[in-house]
Design a protein that fits this description.
8-stranded antiparallel beta barrel; mainly beta; globular; 2% helix; 1 helix; 63% strand
């Protein structure tokens, strides 16, 4: 069983009791990146049973620049499992091994930025049938908290998730596109959260996930509830040990629209006193969005190549903005 850092329990790797809040969300997210094939992606299921639906997302960045994407809101009436819209998550061994699968259609985007207008992109893009079957095995501790003290006292409308943890993983499996199968072998990060959530509860954030190999991973986040009121978080993983980030700055280069990030420079110091400089080059990018009550939230997803000293890694850079 993998090491646990924080007030978590192995049984937290399953779903939790459905809360009374209308916006109660329990979600799992997994990303994966194959260095040799220069491809990767992520899958997410968010159960919003009190709203009668789930949120299902599948994104695959292919090595030739195409992105395969789909988003659905399938109907659900309980929080008993992660199983909706053709996607299913299974806990094989808590804290240690999970399996994710997706069977269904995706839009094939030769120009991923077309997803800025989802209706047009889905209508005008060809569609493919895919089968994604991945096994995720721990290469570091499970770290986080089953109750985030920063959420105490917040109304459910202003909460983003009271409980949350992450873990770096080794990922193996297959991707089949219209009958043609590709083996996947690489690394990624998984995320599990539960509690009230609206995507509009935050002003902005940057969330960076990095895997440099079996022995070295990182996560850096800067979350702003209001303007410049920033909360810095993150962790450096070396084997079974977690050294949490004490301070960090993220400088980004953007495309001409000032919204889509294309390069990053990260400077951080850990609580253990280690200083690191990490640079990121976005290899593939897709703009996603969430709408609620007239508000539009932009979520920019970048498959990113990371450099830290002599090491090269891969992961995701995710930027959230209220636009």
């Amino acid at each position: 069983m993998a090491k646990i850092v924080g007030n978590l329990k192995p049984e937290d790797d399953y779903t939790h009791k459905l809360g009374p809040e209308p916006n109660f969300n329990e979600s799992m997210y997994f990303n994966f990146f194959d260095r040799d094939k220069q491809m990767g992606g992520f899958v997410r299921l968010g159960n919003r049973a009190n709203e009668g639906r789930a949120e299902m997302t599948v994104t695959v960045f292919l090595g030739d620049g195409r992105v395969l994407f789909n988003f659905k809101r399938p109907s659900i009436d309980n929080n008993d499992a992660f199983d909706a819209g053709g996607m299913r998550f299974e806990t094989i061994e808590p804290t240690e091994e999970l399996r994710t699968t997706y069977e269904g259609s995706v839009a094939e985007l030769t120009e991923p930025r077309a997803m800025a207008d989802p209706r047009k992109a889905f209508t005008e893009s060809p569609h493919k049938k895919i089968s994604l079957d991945l096994t995720h095995k721990a290469v570091g501790p499970m770290y986080g908290d089953s109750h985030d003290p920063t959420e105490v006292g917040e109304s459910h409308e202003n909460q983003f998730a009271k409980a949350h943890y992450e873990q770096h993983m080794r990922v193996t499996g297959t991707l089949t596109i219209d009958g043609e199968t590709t083996e996947i072998s690489g690394y990624g990060l998984r995320d599990h959260s539960w509690g009230p959530r609206y995507w509009q509860a935050l002003h902005s954030y940057e969330w960076l996930t990095m895997n440099f190999g079996e022995d070295f991973g990182a996560m850096v986040s800067i979350i702003r509830r209001q303007g410049d009121d920033a909360r810095v978080g993150g962790v450096i993983i070396r084997g079974d040990e977690a050294d949490f980030v004490e301070s960090a700055t993220i400088d980004a280069d953007y495309e001409d629209n000032g919204l889509y990030h294309k390069g990053l420079s990260v400077t951080l110091r850990t609580k253990g006193g280690e200083d690191l400089d990490i640079s990121g080059d976005v290899k593939s990018f897709i703009p996603l969005r969430n709408r609620r009550e007239g508000m539009t939230t932009h979520v920019g997803e970048g498959m990113t190549e990371w450099k830290c000293g002599e090491r090269t890694g891969y992961g995701l850079s995710e930027f959230l903005r209220q636009v």
